[in-house]
């Protein structure tokens, strides 16, 4: 029946037209319905309460027994919830939650823990990569724990870029893929220099493509910020000036330390791994006392200066610290996404290592201190390359922010670092 014949039918035709509109509207509805009764949220709140209680009971990072962590109880619950509602918003949220919290699972004795990783990765890639409803979740993907390495997450992002019809989803997937290619993934082995260079090159291409292909996307600003981090803040680049004030209101500049090897340490008080870096700071400051070496902290706690001064006194933090918590303008300018973020800068003010771990900080500092006066800076073709730190006898291979190979989720290190606080937490609260 055509529209003319419908009109001739009076009321009957009008009813038929309304029915067609309703049917078309139903076809255009999102593929995923919102989670009913906040099922994932309810379960997540219960887990958070149990975890908070657990951390209060196990305050010392070195004495924590993660085999008793609540993740052992709650991870199977989230998987069961997702499986009870396949291809639903509930399932997608449960899978994302699983990947966000698997960092604790790897330290437990739960059976077949690798199956939880595989289930979440496969489910997101197979069931949701092409679904428009995944678009708002991709921003969360960028902040997923970095234990997994670029490969598994990259497969999800690649699938979204290829199969998702939404431009915004494609743009955010490109940003997430670029980030995954340049992120730091643990310390289980060195990546080849060629792989690092290829990953960085592709990441830059992805960030540029977001801006060129999707100029109206909200992802453009994030892509530009990430691109800035890969270029202006890359290894071999001159460190941008930092100007700020300490807890006493005294002005401190990064350039004040020119002529010295500097460890630049972005940290917060409630970050366990930040405390561990501070142990390294004390060791290095003692080892290189009266020598051209400095440790400069950039504190991100949004607390009053007098409160932070007392806290640093209690923690025996005696080296210079700039307070950045009020606006975090310095952290933003340096693309700091979590704490701790640690860089090593040579005597000429050139960035020599990004997002270093404690061991590579020590080795890089030793290498630069042993070199004496640094050259005027890298040649243009050397920009972006990380100089290998001096290897001590019996030491394991180490790398910088992008050098280590991605660990397999099912193969945690023999002596894993405590996950809470130090594993790239996002915007941790203040004191």
Structure description:
The protein is α/β, with parallel strands linked by helices. It folds into 2 domains: 36-231; 243-382, 3-Layer(aba) Sandwich (Glutaredoxin), CATH 3.40.30. Helix content is 47%, strand content 7%. It is built from 15 helices and 7 strands. The protein has helices at 3-8, 11-27, 39-57, 71-84, 89-105, 113-128, 138-142, 150-163, 167-182, 193-213, 219-231, 272-287, 305-314, 329-333, 358-371, and strands at 243-245, 251-253, 261-267, 293-299, 321-323, 341-345, 351-353. The protein is globular and about 65 Å long. 39% of the residues are buried.
How would you briefly describe this protein structure?
The protein has about 425 residues and is an alpha/beta fold. The protein is about 45% helix and about 5% strand. A hairpin with a 5-residue loop joins β6 and β7 (about 350-355).
Low-confidence spans: 1-35, 184-191, 374-431
Number of helices: 15
Share of helix, binned: 40-55%
Distance from first to last alpha carbon: 71 Å
> Average pLDDT, to the nearest integer?
77
Topology:
Layout: H1 3-8, H2 11-27, H3 39-57, H4 71-84, H5 89-105, H6 113-128, H7 138-142, H8 150-163, H9 167-182, H10 193-213, H11 219-231, E1 243-245, E2 251-253, E3 261-267, H12 272-287, E4 293-299, H13 305-314, E5 321-323, H14 329-333, E6 341-345, E7 351-353, H15 358-371
Parallel strand pairs: 3-4, 4-5
Antiparallel strand pairs: 1-2, 3-6, 6-7
């Amino acid at each position: 029946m055509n529209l003319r014949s419908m009109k001739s039918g009076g009321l009957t035709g009008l009813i038929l037209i309304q029915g067609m509109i309703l049917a078309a509207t139903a076809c255009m509805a999102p593929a995923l319905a919102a989670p009913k009764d906040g099922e994932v949220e309810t379960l997540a709140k219960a887990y958070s309460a149990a975890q908070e209680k657990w951390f209060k009971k196990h305050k010392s990072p070195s004495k924590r027994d993660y085999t008793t962590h609540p993740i052992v109880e709650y991870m199977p619950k989230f998987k069961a919830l997702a499986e009870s509602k396949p291809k639903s918003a509930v399932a997608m949220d449960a899978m994302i939650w699983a990947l966000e919290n698997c960092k604790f699972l790897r330290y437990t004795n739960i059976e077949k823990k690798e199956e939880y990783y595989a289930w979440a990765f496969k489910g997101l890639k197979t069931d949701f990569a092409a679904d428009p409803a995944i678009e708002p979740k991709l921003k969360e993907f960028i902040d997923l724990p970095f234990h997994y390495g670029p490969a598994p997450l990259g497969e999800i992002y690649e699938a979204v870029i290829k199969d998702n019809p939404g431009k915004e989803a494609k743009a955010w997937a490109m940003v997430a893929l670029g980030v995954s290619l340049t992120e730091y993934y643990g310390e289980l082995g060195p990546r080849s220099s060629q792989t690092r260079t290829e990953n960085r090159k592709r990441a830059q291409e992805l960030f540029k493509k977001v801006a060129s292909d999707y100029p109206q996307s909200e992802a453009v600003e994030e892509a530009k910020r990430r691109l800035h981090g890969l270029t202006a803040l890359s290894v071999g680049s001159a460190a941008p000036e930092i100007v700020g004030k300490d807890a006493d209101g005294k002005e401190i500049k990064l350039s004040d330390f020119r002529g010295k090897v500097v460890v630049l340490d972005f940290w917060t008080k409630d970050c366990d791994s930040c405390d561990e870096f501070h142990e390294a700071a004390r060791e290095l400051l003692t080892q290189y006392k009266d020598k051209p070496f400095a440790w400069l902290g950039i504190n991100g706690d949004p607390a009053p200066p007098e409160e932070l001064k007392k806290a640093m006194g209690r923690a025996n933090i005696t080296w210079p610290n700039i307070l950045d918590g009020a606006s975090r303008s310095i952290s933003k300018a340096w693309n700091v996404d979590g704490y701790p973020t640690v860089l090593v800068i040579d005597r000429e003010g050139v960035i020599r290592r990004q997002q270093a771990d404690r061991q590579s900080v020590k080795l890089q500092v030793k290498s630069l201190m042993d070199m004496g006066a640094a050259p005027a800076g890298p040649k243009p073709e050397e920009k972006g390359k990380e100089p290998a730190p001096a290897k001590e006898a019996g030491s394991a291979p180490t790398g910088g922010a992008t050098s280590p190979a991605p660990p397999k989720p099912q193969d945690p290190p023999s002596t894993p670092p405590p996950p809470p606080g130090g594993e790239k937490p996002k915007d941790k609260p203040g004191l």
